[in-house]
Specification:
With 98 residues, the protein is of the alpha+beta class. The protein is built from 3 helices and 5 strands. The protein has one domain: Irregular (HU Protein, Chain A). It is elongated and about 60 Å long. The termini are close together. The mean pLDDT is 92.
């Protein structure tokens, strides 16, 4: 499994759109910043056929350290959930590795 970085994505976008590298970099960064900002406001982001990002609240709980068996309090926190859309799901099934 390969890891694709933001820089590699920007390079691909630059080649496909013939726009300047700095412009593509600014657009990608602004897009990511907007996603983070909206999720920070507890907003749901829906990109048709791609997927949905939404914030889920995780309740506070008591956990146990497996090494010492000491009980510890884990505070409530928020996490981002992603649900794939139809096109992404189809794309994932097309590109299965054996």
């Amino acid at each position: 499994m390969a890891t694709i970085t933001k820089k590699e994505l920007i390079d691909r976008i630059t080649k496909k759109t013939q726009c300047k590298h700095i412009a593509a970099k600014e657009i990608v960064q602004q897009f990511l910043d907007e996603i983070a900002t909206e999720l920070g406001k507890n907003n749901r982001l829906e990109f048709r056929d791609f997927g949905v990002f939404e914030v889920k609240e995780r309740a506070a709980r008591t956990a146990q350290n497996p090494k010492t068996l000491e009980k510890i309090h884990v505070p409530a926190k928020r996490k981002v959930k992603f649900k794939m859309g139809r096109v992404m799901r189809e794309s994932m099934n097309e590109h299965k590795t054996e």
